[in-house]
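Sample entry (334 residues):
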Amino acid sequence: MRNLQDINFSILELAPVREDQDVNFSLQHALELTQHAEKLGYERLWLAEHHNMDGIASSATAVLLGYLLANTQKIRLGSGGIMLPNHAPLVVAEQFGTLETLYPGRLELGLGRAPGTDPVTMRALRRGRQETEDQFPQDVLEILQYFGDRQPGQRISATPGQGTHIPVWLLGSSLFSAQLAARLGLPYSFASHFAPRMLGQAIQLYRENFQPSEYLDKPYVSMGVPTVVAQTDEEAEYLATSVYQRIQALLTGQSLKLKPPVDGMDGRWTASEKIAVQNFLAMAQIGSPETVKQGLNKILLNYDVDEFIFTCDIYDTDKRLENFSLLMDIKQPG
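Predicted structure, serialized as C-alpha cells:
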C-alpha cells in the first residue's frame, strides 16, 4: 500500500472570480498560483473549461495556458479539460500543437465529454454543429492521430501539432470515459471534486479493462479533491463557508462569484441544500494539516490512486496560496 509520499500532487484551477474583484484580478491570481505551485513542486496544474459562469474565468483555456506557460519555466500545464463537444478536433490539435511547439515537453491535453455549460450556451458555442457526446470516441481518436507521426495517405494534418505526441488524458464523472480510457490505454482522471458518486466503480472498471498502449504501459488514475487547509480546524471551517456558498449558488442557479466567509451557514441554507452541498463535496478535505493528512490517507487507502488533483475556493488569495503550501507540507515525510 502506497503512502502520500508515493503519489503525485497536482492542482485544478478554475480561475475563480471574487464578488469584489474583476476578471483581470482572477487571471493575475491564476498566474500567481501557477508560479507558487511550480516553486512548491506540484506535478501539474490544469485549467478547467466552463462557459457562461460569472464566477469562473478559465473559459478560453488554451489562451490562458499560453499566458501561464510564458511566465513559468518547468511545471507541466494542461487542460482539465477541454470539453470536446464544443470544439472541432483539428482546432484543438492546432492550438495545443502550437503551445507544445513554443513550450516543448510542458503541455498536456485532458479531454472531457460534457459541454461544461448549460444547453443554451452549448448551442451558442457550437453554432449549428451537430456533434454529440456519442461522437466523443471518434473525436479523441482524431486528436491522437493529429498528435502522432503523419501516416501514409493522411489527408489532414495539424500544423503545428503533427508529431508533437502531446500526452492526452480522458476525464470523466461516470463510467463512459473510464471504459474508453481503458480501451485506448490512456491515463484517466475522475471528477470526484464535484461528482464523487461513481468514483470507485469507475476506477475499478478502468483498471480491470486497461489495455497497454504506445501511450501508457499500465493504468494511471488521478482524482479530484476539494480542499480547504488552514492552521486550525476552526479556521479551515470558517474559510470553507465560501465554498459552501459557491456550491449552494451553483445548485440554486445563483451567481458563482466567490463570497467572503461567514461565521456559519445556519439560516443561509435549507436542510435539503445542506445535504446537496455535502454530497457534492463528499471527497472534500477541510481542516488543519493533520486533519487533512488523515483524510487523504483514508482516501488513498480506499482508492489507491496515483495522483490527487486539488481544487480550492478560498476567498482570500493569500490563504488560498497557503492552502497549497500546507498541502505540499503534508506530502513530506515525517
